[in-house]
Design goal:
alpha/beta; Rossmann fold; GMP Synthetase, Chain A, domain 3; nine-stranded mixed β-sheet; five-stranded parallel β-sheet; binds xanthosine-5'-monophosphate
């Protein structure tokens, strides 16, 4: 019988932006995959005995000094190899082919024209769009390889040597824009490598549980719960692994969405029986925020104050050596960019004190948001938690423009609840909808309600489509939905007499107003 492990695929990372995306695609084919550094030895690979090896892309040219290489003995292990982009060039250059600089590189979507289907391109149509990002290209194949297809500037865009079980694509099959990407992976994993499709969310959970247990042993662990998807799933997972060794701390800042604090308390205490210390700190936050109008100052106060409160709470768990964080893979990439200008100082419940002496437990570090949601569902977390939209760490404070007062937070919270309810009820395609929420502007305008003049705040409705929040389009919400939201907010939320819709994309605007 095969265990999940014997079906593992190793992804050798050459500094690709896409290594995790490759690992994720492999998981989607229900095969376990693990990313390792590119300089792993062939000997070590032989011990691990993976089902297949993938060489990822990377930013270098194979022809420059110091370009990362693989132990050439891996080609002799008899384990199927798939080289992608840089990996494909490496295969060609290591095995006697030629890689040269082309007059123009290819970036983005180009047309792939099939020459021969072979194994890797089995079932792929004559032409299909693929996603490219290269300057160099393979210009001569090593002996024994057959050409599967080309693109305008990559004469050898896909090739294989079925004898030695070595396969390569210059394009990125892992990227959605490569229309047949799924098929290329399917062919490589199942047809060539015969990896069994036995890896599921259930196995991901099992694997995570094992590794959490290995990491923490019988030590005590604490976790700052925010009520968001990531920290909730991380906590539930760690609890599944180590039970009572886990202690959760939930700081109610008074800046959460409607029902959020209650959901956290009932879910974690009543449903999961997790040891949860819930601290109602709203008064402390409001008093610190009094009179502060600058968005960055607000963010800073909340972030720092949160840390203080968490530190006080954590001090109660003297024996705790580990801290759980719900870091996801996209957080890992984003925090890797040192050159990006600071637009907003993000505060995550994850981004806790640097000087706290904890070892981190990050069970979601290799996963994407939708995978985390699927795991949350599998662990039995309620829908409100698993499917809630992303929410900034500083909470409703950055959705009240200007000074934050309890009254204003109450207004924006009530309006936000109406937005959430109406969006949930409405039937339109919500797949691309990233966030939809209310913002309270710091101005007032005149209205007429009943026969009375009113002079009250407007609510700004913000709804965006995005896949990663780096860029976003304002969402074209159906007019009847906008109408319902507007009438309900004005009718039900005291202090509001007008609703406006933000029709700006990101950039130039940001998603949140502060
Ligand atoms: P912006 O407003 O910068 O937001 O376009 C991008 C995404 O990040 C969320 N956001 C935050 N998330 N801590 C977080 O965890 C923060 O301080 C924070 N500020 C903004 C925002 O809701 C959007 O999804």
């Amino acid at each position: 019988m095969h265990t999940a492990r014997s079906s593992k695929v190793l992804v050798l990372d050459f500094g690709a932006q896409y290594a995790q995306l490759i690992a994720r695609r492999i998981r989607e084919h229900h095969v376990f995959s693990e990313i390792v550094a590119h300089d792993i030895t062939a000997e070590r690979i032989r011990e691990i005995n993976p089902r297949a090896i993938v060489l990822s892309g990377g930013p270098k040219s194979v022809n420059v000094e110091g370009a990362p290489r693989v132990d050439p003995a891996i080609y002799q292990l008899g384990i199927p190899v798939l080289g992608i982009c840089y990996g494909a060039q490496l295969v060609a250059s290591d095995l006697g082919g030629e890689v040269s600089r082309r007059p123009s590189g290819e970036y983005g979507r180009v047309e792939f024209t099939l020459v021969e289907r072979g194994d890797l391109a089995a079932g792929v149509p004559e032409t299909s769009p693929v996603w490219m990002s290269h300057f160099d290209a393979v210009t001569r194949l090593p002996e024994g390889f057959r050409l599967l297809g080309s693109t305008p500037d990559a004469p050898c865009a896909a090739f294989e040597d079925p004898e030695r079980q070595i396969y390569a694509t210059q394009f990125h099959p892992e990227v959605e824009h490569t229309e047949q990407g799924w098929k290329f992976f399917d062919n490589f994993l199942h047809r060539v490598a015969k990896a069994e499709p036995i890896w599921t969310n259930f196995s991901i959970i099992e694997e995570a549980i094992e590794s959490i247990r290995r990491q923490v042993g019988d030590a005590e662990v604490i976790c700052a719960l925010s009520g968001g998807v990531d920290s909730s799933v991380a906590a539930a997972l760690v609890h599944r692994a180590i039970g009572d060794q886990l202690h959760c701390v939930f700081v109610d800042t008074g800046l959460m969405r409607a029902g959020e604090a209650e959901t956290v308390e009932t879910t974690f205490t009543d449903q999961f029986g997790i040891d949860l210390l819930s601290i109602n700190a709203s008064e402390r936050f409001f008093s610190r925020l009094a009179g502060v109008t600058d968005p960055e100052a607000k963010r800073k106060i909340i972030g720092e104050h949160f840390i203080r409160i968490f530190e006080e709470a954590a001090a109660k768990y003297e024996n705790a050596k580990f801290l759980v964080q719900g870091t996801l893979y996209p957080d890992v990439i984003e925090s890797g960019t040192k050159t990006a200008a600071r637009i907003k100082s993000h505060h995550n419940v994850g981004g806790l004190p640097e000087d706290m002496e904890f070892e981190l437990v990050e069970p979601l570090r290799e996963l994407f948001k939708d995978e985390v949601r699927a795991i949350g569902e599998e662990l039995g977390l309620p829908e409100e938690i698993v499917w809630r939209q992303p929410f900034p760490g500083p909470g409703l404070a950055v959705r009240v423009v200007g000074e934050v007062t309890p009254d204003k937070v109450e207004i924006v919270r009530a309006a936000d609840r109406i937005v959430a309810e109406e969006v949930a009820k409405a039937s339109f395609d919500k797949r691309a909808l990233w966030q939809s929420f209310a913002v309270l502007a710091d101005i007032r305008s005149v209205g007429v309600m009943g026969d009375e003049r009113s002079y009250a705040y407007p609510i700004v409705l913000r709804a965006v489509e995005s896949s990663d929040a780096m860029t976003a389009d304002w969402a074209k919400l159906p007019y009847d939905l906008l109408e319902r939201i507007s009438s309900r907010i004005v009718a039900e939320v005291a202090g509001v007499n007008r609703v406006v819709y933000d029709i700006t994309s990101k950039p130039p605007a940001t998603i949140e107003w502060e």
